[in-house]
Amino acid sequence: VASGIPGVKNYSQAMGMLNATVGSGDMTMQQLSESMASGLVPVVKGYGLTLKDVGAALATYGDLNIRGAHAGTYLKMAVQALSSPVASAKAQMKELGITTNTLSRDMLHGGLIKALDDLQGRFTKAGLTPADEGQMITQLFGKKAGAGLAVLMENMDRLHSKYPVLTQDANTFNAAWAATQASPQQKWKELTAG
User: Fold this and answer.
1) pLDDT (tens digit, 0 to 9) for every residue of the chain, 194 residues total?
2) Is 166 helix (H, G, I), strand (E, B) or coil?
3) What residues contact residue 50 under an 8 Å CB cut-off, 6+ apart?
4) What's the CA gap between 86 and 8, in Å, rounded?
5) Within 10 A of 33 (CB to CB), how many other CB atoms are there?
6) Distance of CA 15 to the CA centre of its chain
7) Helix 156-171 and helix 173-182, axial crossing angle in degrees, nearest 10
8) How far apart are CA 192 and CA 112, in angstroms?
9) Alpha-carbon span 171 to 59, nearest angstrom
10) 148 CB contacts (<8 Å, ≥6 apart)?
């Protein structure tokens, strides 16, 4: 909330989104904290990403055993690469029908998922097979930034599946927390902690 990243209106929604990221991403809250501590949120919000985009990508990485600062760095570099493909890839970009700012505009107007869907559609239209996509991603975005991007592109169905889960859990966090606090187990934990 303090970072100003769009996608949440209050602390409860933000906590719900973070909690849902942990739950749907096979990670711990500590690993999510390490991802965020990598400087991820202030960077990606400038490219048009929402907290839901960040949560969905980190949850996807988490499912694939990429967690903590490593996941945060992967995502940050992927977003920066989408915003500015390598200059030496002009022929490949022209072949795909994209300019140096096509994917950046996509992110600004529809977040990470819009840019990745656009890129996936262009790969399909160009007749690239999944085996060819990794090489094309490396040519367009470089080896370092391409790695995190390739992971997301290879797992688009998984990434898409995270968005509704994050929305639902963010909007029901208050009710879920109230139910947890009312449970005998939680009351016992609070009593013994006191």
Assistant:
1) 778 888 878 888 888 889 889 988 899 999 999 999 888 988 899 999 999 999 999 999 999 999 999 999 999 999 999 998 888 888 999 999 999 899 999 999 999 999 999 999 999 999 998 888 989 999 999 988 889 999 999 999 999 999 999 988 877 655 655 565 677 887 788 778 87
2) helix
3) 5, 6, 7, 111
4) 33
5) 15
6) 16
7) 60
8) 44
9) 18
10) 61, 73, 74, 75, 77, 78
Name the token pair of 189: 């934990």
Query: In a 10 Å sphere around its CB, with 0-12 CB exposed, 13-18 middle and 19+ buried, how is residue 100 labelled?
Result: middle
Instruction: Give the phi and the psi of residue 55 in degrees, each rounded to 5.
Output: -60, -45
* Report field, pTM of the whole predicted structure over 0.70: yes
The CA distance from 36 to 54, in Å, is 9
Find the DSSP H helices in the chain: 11-24, 29-36, 40-45, 51-63, 68-83, 90-96, 102-125, 130-141, 143-154, 156-171, 173-182, 184-193
Instruction: Count the residues in the chain.
Output: 194
Give the Cα separation of 3 and 85 in Å (integer): 26
Letter for the amino acid at 111?
G
